[in-house]
What does this fold into?
Amino acid sequence: MTQPNDFNKEPLPEETLPDKAPPTNVDSNNQESLDSKDTIKKKAFFTFHVTYKVLRTFFLISVLVISALGFLGLGVGVGYFASLVSDVKVLSKEELTQKINDVELQSKIVYSNGELVSVIKSDLIRTSVGADNISPLIKQALVSTEDEYFYDHPGIVPKALIRATISDLTGFGGSSGGSTITQQIIKQQVLTSETSYKRKSAEILLAMRAEKFFSKEELLNAYLNVSPFGRNNRGENIAGIEEAAMGVFNVHAKDVTLPQAAFLAGLPQSPIEYTPYTNTGEFKENFDLGLKRKDDVLFNMYREKKINQKEYEEAKAYDLAKDFRQPEAPVNNQSGFLYNYLYEEAVRILIPIYYEKDGVTKEEYEASEDLQKKYDEITTRELRQNGYTVETSIDKNIHNSMQEAVAQYGPMLDYGAAPVETSSVLMDNQTGRIYGFIGGRDYNTSQYNRAFQMNRSPGSTIKPILAYAPAIDVGLIGSESRLSDYPKKYRGGIEINNYSDKGSSTFKTAREALTWSLNIPVVNLYDELLETTNPKTYFDKMNIKTFTAEDYLLQSAPIGGPALKVYEQTSAFATLANKGVYNEAYSIDKITDNSGNVIYEHKLAPVQVYKPSTASIMNDMMRDVVNKGTGQPAKETLQGMGSGLANADWVGKTGTSDYQHDYWYTASTPTITMSSWIGHDDPTSMPDSWNKQNMYYWAYMTNYVYQQNPDIFGVNEKFTLDPTVQRQEVVDFTGEKPASFNTNGYDMNLTHEKTKTSLYSEGSAAPDSKFKFGIGGTEENYRSEWNSYIKPKTDTSKNTKKETKKRR
It folds into this structure.
C-alpha cells in the first residue's frame, strides 16, 4: 500500500530494480561499491525524470498562454481592422468597374452662369488599349516583378502584408512591399496615395472585393492602362502601356521586344526616376537607373521560368539605349490665364481638405516640404480624375470683354520697340467676388499672370490704405489736419522728393496732400503714426502677406517702398469702398463631386478693418483725387467718350514707383473696384507721361466692360459720410479748433478766424489750435509759417493791400 507521503511518486521501472540478493561470497567492500553506484543511477534518473516533467508542463502551459494571446491578438486585430474599415463605402461591381476602368472622370471648370470654361486637363498623356494589344512579354515581366503570386492570391498576400507591417513598425527589413497588383489598382484608382493604416485597410478590403468581380486578365489589363510610366520623348507625363511603348520606343505595346518589355514593366515602380527623359523631353545624362531596373526585371522573369537562360543573357546584353526614341519639341499648351489661375485656385482650396482628413494640421503641413509635395500630388490627382465641377465667380461676358479690351487698347501703352505689360482685376466691393481679370497682354508670349503672381511697388496708391486711413482711424488726423511739406530727409540723409517736387515750404491739409499725392507730408504722417499704432495690423486683417514686419518700419513704406500684388491692392480699395469691411477676394464659389455632393463652398467672412466713419472719410477725400487731383485724366477721358460711366461716383488713387518702373490707377464706385497696373517685366523705366497714359487706357478698358454689363457699376449710387463721422469746425490756417494761446512769443486769439469743416472718425476730435499745429516740421518751419500768416498780405490781382487784423 502506498504511503501518504509517497502519493506523487511513480514506481521505478522494473529493469532498474535488482532481480535477487547479491551472492554471499561477494566481498563486502565490493558490495558497498555496487550499492553506491546503484544509488547514483537512481538519483540521476529521478532528477532527469522530474526535470522532464517540469519542462513538459511549462511547455504545455506556454503553448496555452501563447495560443490564448494569439487568439486575443487576432481578436483585437480583427476588431481594429473592422474599426478601420467601418466607414469604407462597399462599392458595387458597377462602381468598381467605373473607377478601375475609367481612366478618369472628367472634371470641369464653369463660369458663374454654368457655361464651360474648360475641361480640367490631365497632364498625363494616356491611350487605353485592349488586352489583345498588349504583348504577353509585358504581362509576364510585370507579374514576375511586381506580384509573382498574382494568379494564385485572392487580392492580397497575407505573409507579404505581415512582413511589410513588421518592417513599418520596427524599421528593419527595408522596403519589403506588400501590395499586390490588385491593391495597387485600388490605391491608384479608388483611394488616395496617403499611407495611413485606415487607407491601407480600405485598400485590402476593396482589393479582395475586386477579385470577386474581375478576372485576373481584366485586373492586369486595367493596371497596365492606368499606371504612370514616366515621361515620353516630348517631356510629357505618360500613363498606360501603349503611350509608354510609343513614347519611349515608338512601337505599339503589342510589338515590343523582350528587353523593351522588361524596361517598360520596370517603370511603374518609380516612373520619373527610371524614364530616360527629362521634363523638357531631353535625354538624361545617363540611363543607368532605368537600365539596371530592366536587368532586375529580366532576372525575375528568368527566376520565374518565363524565359530561359539564353533569352535572359541575350536580353540583358542588348544595347537598349539605341532603341530610345529621339527627343522632340514639346507641344505648346495654350491654356490661357483664366484656366491656369482657376485650376491653381481649386488645388489651393482643396489641399487642406485632404490633409485635414488625414489628421495633419495646417502648421505641420506648412512646416514640411514633403507634406506639401505629397498633398499637392494627391489633390492634383483627385481634381483631375474624380469628376469634380468647379463653379466660379467669373462672369463670362465681363471677363471676355476685359480680354477684348486689352487686345484693342493695349497697344496705346506701347512706346518704341518695347511692349508694355498690364494687368487688372475687377472686383465686387461687398463680397470680394472677382468678376474678371487681365493677366497680361498675350498668354502665348508670356504665361506669367501679373494679376495674381506679380509683386511690384504700388507707388502712391498705398498712401490711402497704409497711411491716411489708419491715421484717421486712430484719431491722429482729420481730413483738414495740417501736414508739413517743408523739405525733409530720410533718416539716412537722402532727400525726400516727388520727382522735381522737393517740398512747398508750407503746411498742407491732409486732403490736399492726398489729392496731389505729395510725398513729404505722408512721410511725416507715417512717422507720427508709427508712434501711435502698428499699421501692420490693418494689412494683416486684409491678408496682405507681401510685406514683411520690417517693411512696415521703413520711412518709404507710405510712398510705395515694399511690394503688393494687383489683386491685393484691389481688395484693399474695395474694403474702403465697402465701409471698411474686408471680404477675401475669391473666384471659386463651389466645388462638387461627380454625384453633386458639395466638397467646398465659399463662405463670406467679413472683417471690419477700418471704422465705417474712417472709410467714408477716405472715400470723400479720394473723390477729390479723381475730380480735381492726380486722377483727373481718367475722369476726363470718360467724359470725353460721352460715357454714362463718367456719372458714377468714382473715388481712387494714382501711383508711380521709383524710376517710373510702375504706374497704377485703382478706382471704385460704391459697388465695384477696377485696378490697372502697367510696366515692364524686367523692370525698366517708362516715360514720365505714361502715368496719364495708364489712366487713359484704364478709362477705355473700363468703359468697354461697362458697355457689356453696366448693371454692376452702380452708376446711380453715391458714397455718403457715415452717421458716426465727427464734423469739427477748425481754423483754416491750423486745421485745429479755434483757441487762444501764448506760445514761443506768439500771443494768438484764433476764435474769430475763418473756419472749415474737418472730418474725424468716430470717437475722435480735433485738438485746440497751438503753436505746433501740424504733423512734422521743425521749430523754424512753424515760426516761418506763423510769420507769413501774421504779416500783412498783398492782393496782387487787385494791387491792393489787405488790412492786417489784430490778433490777440
Q: What stands out?
A: The longest strand covers residues 421-428.
